[in-house]
Amino acid sequence: MAYTILFGTFAFLMLLGMPIAFCLGIASLATVLYIGIPPIVIFQQLNSGMNVFAMMAIPFFIFAGDLMVRGGIAFRLIRFASGFVGHMRGGLGQVNIVSSTLFGGISGSAVADASAIGGLMVPQMAARGYDRGYAVNVTISSALIALMIPPSHNMILYSISAGGTVSVADLFTAGIVPGMLLTVALMVTAYVVARRRGYPAEPFPGFAKLLVFFFAALPGLLLIAIIFGGVRSGVFTATESSCIAVIYAFLVAVLVYRELNWSGFVEAILGAVKTTSLVLLVIGMAAAFAWLMSFLQVQVTLIQVVKSISDNPMVVLLLITVVLLLLGTFMDMAPLIIITTPVFLPIVQAFGIDPVHYLVVPRVLGMALGIFALTVYLIVGALVSGYLWAFIQDVPLLPGDYLRQLAGALGWLDFALLALKTLGFGFIIAIVTCFHGLARPLRLEDVPGATVQAVAQSLVACILLDALFIVIYLVA
Prior knowledge:
The chain is an all-alpha fold. It has 21 helices and no strands. Helices cover 80% and strands 0% of the residues.
């Protein structure tokens, strides 16, 4: 009955549209009242969830981001990004994405990233003729890059939620490649949309000015290297690196660029306090909710349920991926990590899965890379196979006429099946990749063999799934 009250109250309040922090807090309070535990326990757990020394990195990184905005560092990063990629089609969209990547490498916060870059880029994009909805969507999507690359707050939260057993330096390193892949995928998507809508490209400033922009942005770029290099080498911890980021940003803004005055400094403090209070409230409520789940031994029950379903690590990863995908549709990343880590981490460790890869690879690399790559594959494959079929049937059809007829014949069902097929292929690649890369630690000499097996198994599974979709399409 306690399970029903805890999760039922949470789901009911979510359906009512209540903020996630209050959903977690009220559900926890209702459950302890039913069990008979003193309600003060919820407030104790809320306080202990926020009163963690490693958690100090979050407000300091947010403060460093605010100092960058008001001290001219963010502007110079955007100007360098503009000179570097602005000449591409839909230049300001590309600038937005690259700027978010650079800024996220310092602030570590998607909220701070969207606020800083969006406040500067969205008005410019709207003034240049970009649809405001497009500008906002580009800003929001690119802000998610900050969740993956160092110094991501979510990686710090994951390390804390895991009881400090997972290295923050390892998490930072593991997030670089997925973060860069996400950047490239967003840039390709923005380019395609820009060509379709006819968005303009910005003039290329020339290599001489680009070099000037680079040196002007170099102090900000060096901060990215200092944060990651210092944490990875063990010179300082993630929390200490956040303090160094604040001091460095302050000195650059005051002594180098000389753009930060007293009023700007006060505004940066107030902005950091506001953002931090919102984040920490959710974190504290989620900590109380997670403690109650541990008290009710939810993870023990789940381990028994999972083992009763299968002892195959690939199946376990599939189940976890599906659950996280569903939870992620209505829950923010921070409370999701705090709540699910104490539950899922013992499960993945019981099956021999690396906890670092559990955070990064299954939920980001496999799904993102698989879905984006296979979307292109499906479109190209469908076009080529259709024309080959017409050629085999001796139909006198030129490629241009074929494409025009195809564009006029496509309906919503075709796009719906394409989306479902792409999602299914993405799941297959994610699970197979996780199985070969995570279910058992790999030595360097085992990587080629595991890669061949993963590709072969993914190909066979995708062909079978493709055949199933063909049957569904013919029946429909």
